[in-house]
Design brief:
The complex is a heterotrimer of chains A (about 120), B (about 130) and C (about 260). With about 120 residues, chain A is mainly α. Chain A has one domain (about 5-115): 3 helical TM bundles of succinate and fumarate reductases (Up-down Bundle), CATH 1.20.1300.10. Helices cover about 75% and strands about 0% of the residues of chain A. In chain A, helix 1 (about 5-30) crosses helix 3 (about 55-85) and helix 3 packs antiparallel against helix 4 (about 90-115). The longest helix of chain A is centred in the middle third of the chain and has 28 residues, at about 55-85. The longest helix of chain B has about 30 residues, at about 20-50. Helices cover about 70% and strands about 5% of the residues of chain B. Chain B contains four helices and two strands; from the N terminus they run H-H-H-E-E-H. With about 130 residues, chain B is mainly α. The radius of gyration of chain B is 22 Å and the shape is flat. Chain C has two domains: about 5-105, Ubiquitin-like (UB roll), CATH 3.10.20; about 105-245, Orthogonal Bundle (Fumarate Reductase Iron-sulfur Protein, Chain B, domain 2). Chain C starts with a strand and ends in an 8-residue tail after the last helix. Classes of the chains: A mainly alpha (about 120), B mainly alpha (about 130), C alpha+beta (about 260). Chains A and B meet through helix 1, helix 2, helix 3 and helix 4 of A and helix 1, helix 2, helix 3 and helix 4 of B. Bound molecules: iron/sulfur cluster (SF4). Iron/sulfur cluster (SF4) binds next to helix 4 and helix 6 of chain C.
Chain lengths: ~120, ~130, ~260
Amino acid sequence: MARSHKPVVWGLFAAGGTASAFLVPVLAITLGFAVPLGLLSPTDLSFDRVYSIVSHPLGRLVLFGYMTVCFWHAAHRTRTTAHDVGLHNDRVTMIVCYGAAGLSTVLAALFLLSL
Amino acid sequence: MNNAPYIRPMPASWWLRQGRYVRYMIREATCLFVGLHALVLLVGVYRLSQGREAFEAFLEALWSPAGQLISAAILIMAVIHSVTWFNLTPKAMPLWIGEKQAPGWIIVAAHYGGWFVVSVIVLLLAGGLS
Amino acid sequence: MSARQITLEVLRYRPESESEPVFQSYSVPCQKEWVVLDALNYVKDNLDRTLSFRWSCHMAVCGSCGMVINDNPMLSCKAFLRDLPDHIRVEPLQNFPIERDLMVSLDDFMDKLKSVKPYLIPKQPTADPDGTYKQSSAQLKKFKPFAMCINCMACYSVCPQYGLNDGFAGPAALALAHRYNADSRDQGRRAREDVVASNTGIWECTFVGACSEVCPKNVDPAAAIQQTKIASTVDYFKDLLMPSGRKIAHPEGDTT
Ligand code: SF4
């Protein structure tokens, strides 16, 4: 038996699980409900303001890191859950899940760099 | 006739048989909504890179009834994720104070406290500290 | 003393005459303070001598009377009738081959226990003239809860990952590995790694957590496994950065 390389994806899974546990609820509220509910004013999410925050080097870096770990968290858990519900061809599941996460990561980098 | 030891089959629906397994599956399913949330961000950044009009159209879609439904689903499942994730932290990261293991609720409470603080900070930052 | 009439519905498997298990019901007059094992013994003594089940100590230390009682794996000697309804379903432990009635095959579990090297692997023999390895009570506390396992296999019975993949080392074996890894006298973590940190070791676990809920000895295998995952991840990245580190920390010279 050999030592597994799972620590790589598991590390991303755990980092994503922690980051998303802290941030998804508040971000979902901020982006999805805060303005319609009047919690924030429309200018808070105006193009100029959001652009200046996201295109700031720190903004790009944080957002990239956050999106990446979220994607890999979702991909890894989806993979193990697929196995749980009876999809036992783990190789196919792995290629689909990690492929989607990898592609999303690359797209995130490209979009953020194009700002 | 002498049969071999009997191996009971495990049906694919095993997780429907007990409450604890159903709760586990719901917990695991939250990851789809964490992924969906990151995809929303990805689309948002893409639309942002396309300019003002594209970004405003993105926000409009996000605030439409359908968009709000998606946000609500993300929010509900994300809260389930946060709660289940934080509640399990003492098992993964036990805290030793001197010779004693700190009770698990301290670690859980610290995470809930941090969650609250982070949420308030994000909202304040989004509102331009107003 | 009035007896309480209880219906025991027992899953039976007689390999010489049956190709699959069937339920059989017994009506048992039970005393108030009885446990399920007492009711089974009543059946064996008075109603049906052919019923087979394992037990030994009747005091929750031998670990041999584990069975599934109303969907939960427990020690039948610790399952008090006063906590149970009048109709009790008794089945052998899940996820193991049934040999006969309530007795399951132990072979796979024994192999798993052995595979994690569940003994002290010190770096070098003790310098202590009386040949002992000294340990403080604080050091003992770090692993004591994980040393309480009585090998009842209840945790395997509720572990879906073991049910889905019987190659998985499983909760008790991995908790036992953690028990030695966390022992101050032991330096065998790297020697256990080939089994513990393999794809059929800790990485097969998805933290369902049921093992810890049912353990009659509060061992908390789920905690042991998550802590091992974190330690193994740290080891993995350490070894990537400093590839030479692994050999030195490999006391048994175990390279297989
Ligand atoms: S860890 Fe607990 S449930 Fe598992 S075999 Fe040991 S005593 Fe039984």
